[in-house]
Amino acid sequence: MKKYFLFLLIGATIGLTASAQDGRQAKRSPEQLAEIQTGQLKKKITLTADQENKVKEIELEYAKNLQALKNDGTDRKSRLGKAKEIQDKKDNSLKSVLDEKQYAAYLEQKESRKDKLMEKRKERKGRR
Questions:
Q1: CA 107 remoteness from chain centre
Q2: What distance in Å separates the CA atoms of residue 21 and residue 61, rounded to the nearest whole number?
Q3: Could you tell me the CA-to-CA distances from 46 to 2, 5, 23, 67, 120 in Å, in that order?
Q4: What is the distance, to the nearest Å, from the Cα of residue 96 to the centroid of all Cα atoms in its chain?
Q5: Domain residue spans in the chain?
Q6: CA-to-CA distance for 27 and 16, rounded, in angstroms?
Q7: CA-CA distance, 16 to 63, in Å (whole number)?
Q8: Which of 21, 48, 66, 105 has CA atoms 20 to 30 A from the CA of 73?
Q9: Cβ(96)–Cβ(103) below 8 Å
Q10: Of 19, 18, 108, which is closest to residue 63 (Cα–Cα)?
Q11: What is the 3-state secondary structure (H, E, C) of the chain?
Q12: Are the beta carbons of 84 and 127 closer than 8 angstroms?
């Protein structure tokens, strides 16, 4: 189950790095991803200017680490473990920047995203 969740987490993150364009996937830069992720979080919770800058830095580091992981050529199992470590580091960093209420809202948003991915996966499996 942990591997399945981790796979979904990586898929979601990598999925956020691409957008449909003429039937092909266009890659976004880590800077663009950080901006998008920060904007999504800002929609859910109110951030101070200082918090917003710190969150953007955390998201940028996270996006760069995932991009490096995607390109490192290691086996899938190894990448999943490393992705989990990167996600945990991001969560811990955000926990130190956000207050308790904000962090709880972040976790809720994260869980909601995971649930939506699981539903989409079930729908795809049902079509086979």
A1: 12
A2: 26
A3: 31, 28, 36, 28, 29
A4: 18
A5: 30-117
A6: 9
A7: 10
A8: 21
A9: no
A10: 18
A11: CHHHHHHHHHHHHHHHCEEEECCEEEECCHHHHHHHHHHHHHHHCCCCHHHHHHHHHHHHHHHHHHHHHHCCCCCHHHHHHHHHHHHHHHHHHHHHHCCHHHHHHHHHHHHHHHHHHHHHHHHHHHHC
A12: no
Amino acid at site 107: L
DSSP-assigned beta bridge partners for residue 18: 27
Long-range contacts of 119-124 (CB under 8 A, 24+ apart): 121/8
Tokens standing for residue 110: 């994260």
> What's the average model confidence in pLDDT over 65-88?
90
Residue 24 phi, psi dihedral angles, 5° rounding: -115, 165
Interval 14-37: pLDDT, tens: 555 444 444 444 689 999 999 999
Q: Which residue has the tokens 């092909």?
A: 24
Q: Is the pLDDT reported for residue 13 higher than 70? A: no
Residue carrying structure tokens 């190894």 = 78
